[in-house]
Amino acid sequence: MYTNNYVIVAIFVGLGIFLPVAALTIGKWLRPSKPIDPKLTTYESGNEPVGEGQIRFNIRYYLFALMFVIFDVETVFLYPWAVAYKKLGLFALVEMLIFVGLLAVGLLYAWKKKVLQWTSI
Amino acid sequence: MMHFLEQPFGWSNFFVFLLLGIVMLLIVLGFVTYAIYFERKVIGWMQFRIGPNRTGPLGLLQSVADVTKLLIKEDTIPRKAERQLFILAPVITFIPSFAAIAVLPFASNLFFADLDVGILYYVALSGISTIGIVLGGWASNNKYALLGGMRSAAQMISYEVPLVISVVGIVMMTGTLNLRLIVEGQAGGFWHWNFIPQIIGFVVFVIAGISELNRTPFDLPEAESELVAGYHVEYSGFRFAFFMLAEYVYVFAIASLTTVLFLGGWQSPLPVLDFIPGIILVPAQIFVHRLFLLLAARDAAAHPDRPAHGSRLAGAAAARDRQHFRQRDFNGIGGWGRMKGIMKGLGVTFKAMTAKKVTYAYPDVPLEMPDRFRGIQHFEPDKCIVCNMCAKICPTECITLTGKPNPDPEKKGKVIDTYDINFEICILCDLCTEVCPTEAIVMTNNFELSTYSRDELFKDMKWLTDNNENVRKENNSAAPKGGAKANA
C-alpha cells in the first residue's frame, strides 16, 4: 500500500520531534541552572550591547527573496514537465523553453537594473 | 522492505517501521559523532597537527565526551531573546534534516519511504531548516545572530534554485522523481552513471550542495572570523548541539543524495564487481564523497595560520579567494579562479596529510630535548664519594647531603646516607654535575616539576635515583677535558 510510505515519513518526523524534546528534557534534569545577570545579557564581544538587536535589514534581501520565489516556482513547474518529458514530446519542450525564456528575460532585466549586485544602493 | 511496504497497513507493520526509524536515527547519530571526530582529525592532519588523541584510544571518544559536556552544560537564554522562538528554532532546524533521510535508498532492498516524489520531498524539507536558522538568528536579539540568520536566508535563496535545477536533467533522463528508480536506471558499470551525461548538473549540484550545508567556503552564516558564531552565537548546551547535529545530518543526506543521483547508488562501478553487496557500496561512496566535501571545503578555508613552508602559498591564495568571495557576497561564486584555488589547496592538503607533524603527542611521547638541555638531576648513590663538592658549589644551597661510615669495614671513606635537592630554589645551573668528580649526579632531559604542593618539590635520594630516564649523555663533570690529566 502506498500509504505505508507516508506512515514511514510520519514516523521519521515523529522521531525528529522526539529526539530534541527528549534530549532537552533529560538535559534539563542534568544541567545546572544558576542564572545571574551578566549571563543573561546579549553577547556583543564583551561590550555592553548597543541599541536593539532586531534592526531593520537591507532592502536587498527582499529583492533577492522575490527573485528566489520566481525561480523556485519555475523549478516547481519544471519538475512535472521533466518527469513526463519523454511522453510529452516536442510541443511541451518548446512550451517549456518559452516559459524559461520569459523568465530569463526577466532575469536579464533584473541584472540590468543591478538587482543582482549587492552594493548597488 | 518492499515486502513490508506492499502489505496493508497494520500495527505490526507500524512497529517494524518504527524500529527501522529508530535504528536509522541511531546510525545517523553515530555517523554524526564520528564525522565530527574524523573532520577534526583530517583538519589536524592538514595543518601538520595530530588532532584529537586524548579521549579514548586514538581520541575516538572525543565527540562522545563533547556531547556529554553539552548535555550537562548550563543553558542560558538571554533576557532580551524571544523565549519561545529561541527554544523552537533548533528543533525546527533539526526535524526536517532527519525527516529528509526517510526517502534515501541505501540498497535495492533497503530503503525507507519509497516515495514517488522523492527528490521534491527532499528539496522541500531541506528548505525548512533555513527557517529554523533565520528564526534562531532573529530570536536571539543579537546583531551577530541576526546577520548570520539573514546571510543564511540569502545564501539558501542563492543556491537552492541551482541545486534544484541541476537535478532536472536526471529527472528528464529517467522520467521519475523516485530515488530508488533513479538508481535502478544506472545499472551496468560506471559509464551508465548519471554524472557522465549530467556532468554540468553534477558540478553544480556538488557546489550548491556544499552551500546548502553552510560549510566552508560557504560558511557565511557562521563566519566565525567576523560574526563570532553567526546565528547560534547566543545558543549554548544542547540547543546549540541541535544546530550542529542538523548540519551534520545534512552532510550525511547530501552525500547520500549525490551518491544516489549521480554516482550510481548501490550499482557497482564495474560489472565484474557485481558480487559486492550494494549495502557496502553506498556507505563507501558516501565516505568518499564526504571526504571530498571536507577536503575541498576546508582547504578553501585554509587558515593563513597554517604553520608550514609549502602551505603558505596556498593558504594565502585561499585566504585571498575567501576574501574575494566575501566581498562579492552573493554576486556569484567566482568562477574558474576559485576552482583553481580549491585544487591548489587540495594538493597542499594531500601533501600535508602524509608529512611529518610539527606537533607532539606531548605527555604520551616525551619531548626530545637537545642533549645540552639542563633538566632535573639524576643521582646514583653507588658512585657518590660524599665529597660535598656539589653542596658547596650550589649557588642557591638547595642540596643537602649527609654521609655515613662505609658499612663494609674493609673499606675506608664514607657512603651517602641522605641526599636532598630542594627544587623550589634549584636553578638547574648544572654546577653540581660539573663539579662532581664521579658523575654521581648527572642531569636528565626531564623538566616536569609542577605539583600541587610545595612540599613535593623537595626531592629525596630515592626520587632522584629513580629519575633515571633520558639521562644526559654528555655531562660537563670533572672528567678530563684536556691538559695534563687528559692523557693520564
TrEMBL record, chain A:
Superkingdom field: Bacteria
Bilayer-crossing regions: 6-26, 61-82, 88-111
Subcellular location(s) of the protein: Cell membrane; Membrane
Membrane-protein topology: Multi-pass membrane protein
Record keyword Transmembrane helix present: yes
Gene Ontology molecular function: oxidoreductase activity
EC number: 7.1.1.-
Keywords: Cell membrane, Membrane, NAD, Oxidoreductase, Quinone, Translocase, Transmembrane, Transmembrane helix, Transport
The reaction(s) this protein catalyses: a quinone + NADH + 5 H(+)(in) = a quinol + NAD(+) + 4 H(+)(out)
Enzyme category, top tier: translocase
UniProt keyword Mitochondrion present: no
Function: NDH-1 shuttles electrons from NADH, via FMN and iron-sulfur (Fe-S) centers, to quinones in the respiratory chain. The immediate electron acceptor for the enzyme in this species is believed to be a menaquinone. Couples the redox reaction to proton translocation (for every two electrons transferred, four hydrogen ions are translocated across the cytoplasmic membrane), and thus conserves the redox energy in a proton gradient.
Quaternary structure (record): NDH-1 is composed of 14 different subunits. Subunits NuoA, H, J, K, L, M, N constitute the membrane sector of the complex.
Family, similarity comment: Belongs to the complex I subunit 3 family.
Protein name: NADH-quinone oxidoreductase subunit A
Protein source organism: Gordoniibacillus kamchatkensis
